Amino acid sequence: MPFDAQGLFELMLGMGLAAARLLPCMILVPAFCFKYLKGPLRYAVVLVVSMVPAPAISRALSSFEDDWFSIGALLLKEAVLGTLLGLLLYAPFWMFASVGALLDSQRGALSGGQLNPALGPDATPLGELFQETLIMLVILSGGLSLITQVIWDSYQVWPPTAWLPGMTVDGLNVFLEQLNQTLQHMMLYAAPFIGLLLLIEAALAIIALYAQQLNVSILAMPAKSMAGIAFLLIYLPTLLELGNGQILQLADLRHLLTQLVAVP
């Protein structure tokens, strides 16, 4: 059997185009845990995963006659597309991290960074906890296969050799509606925390009217922290159920992609 150098070269190009879309997407989605993979190991994982769509891409490249400038432009297009796809897949994780960040902000855990910006970016313990909890739900409920299936389906919706898709009439409205739903769900999930802590703060303000020697600003932070953590123990099962629903909605993202763009 003769050695097919042209076929091997097209396969390598296919792996490169697949990796250009996969790398930013896998970096952005926390479920792939790429923040714990550093250096060459991260790129090795991406190259191994890129071998799945690489044969189909290499067959498409066999009839794609263009120069190296066009191949480089395709790589850049795939990187941008992978970033946009990663942002869509990252939305549920960002939403849960934002719920924890809102709770930390309301109970005063982020006041140090607000008073002294030189401390650097604020760390939200509950935001990290909620995001890691959602990652655990993704792994336990089979959501990782849903995420990877959306990535594979994106190659059918927008093939790597296609330059620009046919934009649908309602594509922008669909994207804005998806963003609107993410923000609405974030506020709805955090509303019980915020409502409880605002009631506690209002009660302490009323107490301060009758006990003016009481330093309410110092008392409010531990009181809201204790009440928020106690309420979290009660609210956590509901929050986990809501997170599981967000994971199951990832299966609808494939149909969302077909509404955003239409590639002939």
Short recap of the structure:
The protein has 264 residues and is an all-alpha fold. Helix content is 76%, strand content 2%.
Q: Give a count of the beta strands, DSSP E runs of length 2 or more.
A: 2
Per DSSP, what share of the residues sits in E-state strands of 2 or more residues? under 5%
Q: What oligomeric state is this?
A: single chain
Based on CA atoms alone, the radius of gyration comes out at: 24 Å
Q: Major sheet: size, sense and barrel closure?
A: 2 strands, antiparallel
**What count of domains describes the coordinates?**
1
Topology record:
Elements: H1 5-28, H2 40-50, H3 54-62, H4 68-107, H5 111-115, H6 125-140, H7 143-157, E1 166-167, H8 171-210, H9 216-248, H10 253-260, E2 261-262
Characterise this structure:
The structure is a single chain. This protein is mostly helical and 264 residues long. The chain has one domain. 76% of the residues lie in helices and 2% in strands. The protein has ten helices and two strands, in the order αααααααβαααβ. It has helices spanning 5-28, 40-50, 54-62, 68-107, 111-115, 125-140, 143-157, 171-210, 216-248, 253-260; strands spanning 166-167, 261-262. Strands 1-2 form a two-stranded antiparallel sheet. Helix 1 packs across helix 2 and helix 4 crosses helix 6. The longest helix is centred in the N-terminal third of the chain and has 40 residues, at 68-107.
